From TrEMBL:
Keywords recorded for this protein, A-Z: Cell membrane, Exocytosis, Membrane, Repeat
SMART domains: C2
SUPFAM superfamilies tied to this protein: C2 domain (Calcium/lipid-binding domain, CaLB)
UniProt source species: Chlamydotis macqueenii (Macqueen's bustard)
Gene Ontology molecular function: neurexin family protein binding
InterPro entries associated with the record: C2_dom (IPR000008), C2_domain_sf (IPR035892), SYTL1-5_C2B (IPR043567)
Cellular-component GO terms for this entry: exocytic vesicle; plasma membrane
Lineage, opening ranks: Eukaryota, Metazoa, Chordata, Craniata, Vertebrata
This protein's name: Synaptotagmin-like protein 2
Amino acid sequence: YVKTYLLPEKYKLGKRKTSVKKKTFNPVYNEILRYKIEKELLKNQSLNISVWHNDTFGRNSFLGEVELDLGTWDWNDKSNKQINWFPLKPRVEITFKRDLQGLIRYFILFIFTGKKTVSTGEVHIWVKECYNLPLLRGNRLNSFIKCTVLPDTSRKSRQKTRTVSKTTNPVFNHTMVYDGFRPEDLREACIELTVWDHNKLANHFLGGLRIGLGTGKSYGTTVDWMDSTSDETALWEKMMNSPNTWIEDTLPLRML
C-alpha cells in the first residue's frame, strides 16, 4: 500500500493511505488521495509518498519513498498535471526546511532531592517561548507544548502548557517537573517536547525536540525515539555534568 504525509503535518489530518493490494509486485491502486488546503500555504509544505508491505501478521515493512518540495513545484507546468513515474529511494531524514519549523527557547535542570544514601533527583523543564512558528491555517495559530519523558509513556509522564492564542511567537513561561531520577537513569531517558496548533477539530503537529544522549537504545533495548541531534545531545550532557544548574538553549524544531 501507499502512504502519504503532507509535511510538516505528520499527524492525523496530514496522513492518507491507499488500500492494500495483495499478492503482486505490480500493484494498481487507481485511487486519489485528497488534501484540502489553501494554495498559499503549499509554499511551506512538502509531500512525502512511501510504499509499504503489509504481511500476514499485520506488520508493515518500508519499501521506499519519494519526497516532493511543494514550495518549488511548478503548478502551471502541464507535465506536472499528468501521471508521472518517480524512482523510490531509501528512507532518509526528512528534508523539510528546518528554518520554517520555528525555534524553541527552554531551560533544563537536574537537581538532587534524595537523602545522601539514596541519590535521586528531579528533572525540571522550563519552556520559555517559541519563535517564528509556521502558519498552517492562514493567519490563525493557537499553540501549546506537550512534554513526555521517555521511555515512560503513561498518563503521569504527559504534561502540557496552556494554549497561547493568535501569535507565531508564543511566550509560555511554564515549568514541568519529573521526579525519581537516579543519575544513571539520565543516560536512558529522553525528553520529548512537541509543539501543536490547537483548533476545535484536531491538534496539528508543528515540530519538536528529543533531548537525550541519542544512542538509539534505552536500558539495552533499541528504540527509535532515542534519536537526538548533536545539539540536543550536547545540552543533555551539559545538564548531566552540571547538576543544580539551569542549562539554557534555543534550538530549531524538527519533525519527529
